[in-house]
Write a structure and sequence with these properties.
There is one protein chain. The chain is α/β, with parallel strands linked by helices. It folds into 4 domains: 124 residues, 3-Layer(aba) Sandwich (Udp-n-acetylmuramoylalanyl-d-glutamate--2,6- Diaminopimelate Ligase, Chain: A, domain 1); 120 residues, 3-Layer(aba) Sandwich (Udp-n-acetylmuramoylalanyl-d-glutamate--2,6- Diaminopimelate Ligase, Chain: A, domain 1), CATH 3.40.1390.30; 74 residues, Alpha-Beta Plaits (2-Layer Sandwich); 39 residues, no CATH class. 30% of the residues lie in helices and 25% in strands. It is globular and about 95 Å long. The chain binds zinc ion.
Amino acid sequence: MQLSEVVQTLEQLAPLSLAESWDNVGLLVEPSAPRPVKTILLTNDLTEAVMDEAESLSCDLIISYHPPLFRPIKRLVQRDWKQRLAIRALEAGMAVFSPHTSWDSVRGGVNDWLVGGLGSGHVSVLSQTFRSPPHSHRLEFTVKSGEELNAAIEELKSCDGSTLQHSSNSAENKGIHVSFTCSESALPHLVQTLSGHTVPSQSLTVSKLEKHPLSGHGQGRASVLDQPVTVATAVEKMKAHLSLSHLRLALGTGQSLESLVQTVAVCAGSGASVLNGTKADLYVTGEMSHHEVLDAVASGTSVILSDHSNSERGFLFIFRERLAVRLPEAVSVLVSQADRDPLQQRPNCDHRPNCGLLRPDPPLRELTEAAERKEHVIKSSGLSRSPRR
Ligand SMILES: [Zn+2]
């Protein structure tokens, strides 16, 4: 399947127009030599480990939820890890596509999947996506007769740069009311044309058309749960939904693990800007700052944090199914095995004394004793060192 056809399918599943204006979505890396797409790798983040995996799979397209290229770049050099990845993708002939906030916003996307972890409910969008109308302005005027209307339409047809739509109705003895919509770029020429010819200038009005909300699309979700659950159950449900052994919980003021959660507000990733001020029994997001958590808790809202990408990654498996059924069977759609949140829990381990990463943090007493022993060695050897901070 050609890359352009895959990209078209991706945009059908989540139109890029749903992404936030600050975002950098769509096809980010496009190799010069087109080749059929046979293997697609889905990842939350494009890291060096994921690129190793993509190369070992001879992948043709990487779909990285977070855009690996975000800020404008003036050079492609090896010292920047994201630029290195872009270079590796190009050299291996791999394309890179990023959907990011278009997946967050789309109905049935990341945030609907996230809120679904607490069970069914009445779900609404926290920050609505609006769409601009196809034409930005409306012009209205009145003509006295059908002949004048036809003359005006002929005049307007000569104005290029926009597709004109018109409707007209005739009220008794008040002439014919005509309404056109047009693009902003076509507006000056249209006004000039109408004013200079058949249309009395006093009857011409111009108004700007408002954006309209796109039902079900936008950032964050709120849900009034069909079956309220306790805070403790909410934690267990989210752990199962996100396939995590640990979550962090801040209990809202006056709440306990047995308090009931009826209303929940979620936002995948770093959700404070969307969740802030929302009345809910519980917030679920990837990360919030210390002070944002304090604000939520003080207003009686409990907070579950999963770490950033853990609140997003599970959607890759949902999307994999949606994409695979729309592509020929010969195209493999895989979810990365190497992709993971950079913050990991360190489980207790008693394998062996020097078990590196798996060794738990030593308790404070051990650290203090070790520091005292080190101090003793330094003193007894006669060395003096300035303290390091
Ligand atoms: Zn994110």
